[in-house]
Amino acid sequence: YAIDGEEAIKKAKEIKPYAITLDIMLPKKDGFVVLNELKTLPETKDIPVTVISMVDDKDLGLSLGAAEYLIKPIDKKELARKLEKYSLKGKKEGINILLIDDNPDDVELLSSFLEPEGIKAIKAYGGEEGIKLAIEKQPDAIVADLIMPNVSGFEVVQRLKKDERVKNIPIIICTGKDLQEKKKIY
């Protein structure tokens, strides 16, 4: 989670995540400038960037190097398709996704999106439990909230990426406070 474009670039260089989701409407540096910079820096140029924004300029986003360009809001089927496309490398059966969030309602909501698609949800109700379950269960992918007490989503990503047993598991960040009300992922 970064609050502006400058911080996004700094954190991407520092964390080197599996993938990046990027909004276009950012303070200090807009998302298109951030995307261009991410795609030209040696440390971040190979990280896939998915733009998720209210700004509808897909052609520009893709021309600057975005892997995907999605317009908010994203519905539950879209989330499932992205998980399959980016995280599961064509695996069709027995898909396990670890959901990490301190809010049980959000874990249950995400689970209700995935299970009808044939994806088994492994549920963790905080960062520390999520790290433990990632190592123990070896899921195909992880969906994590960023804002959690004690062990944040950033710490989850950092710790998992340093652990040889789980460092290659794709992590998708999904955060938003109005998930219950709108049943969408923003």
Task: Name some characteristics of this structure.
alpha/beta, four-stranded parallel β-sheet, 40% helix, globular, disordered C terminus
Give a verbal description of the structure.
- The protein is of the alpha/beta class.
- The protein contains eight helices and seven strands.
- The chain has a four-stranded parallel beta sheet with strand order 5-4-6-7, with helices on both faces. A three-stranded parallel beta sheet has the order 1-2-3.
- The longest helix has 12 residues.
Record the SSE blueprint.
Elements: H1 5-15, E1 20-22, H2 31-40, E2 49-53, H3 58-63, E3 68-71, H4 76-87, E4 96-100, H5 104-114, E5 120-124, H6 127-137, E6 141-144, H7 153-162, E7 171-173, H8 179-182
Parallel strand pairs: 1-2, 2-3, 4-5, 4-6, 6-7
Summarize the structure.
The protein has 186 residues and is of the alpha/beta class.
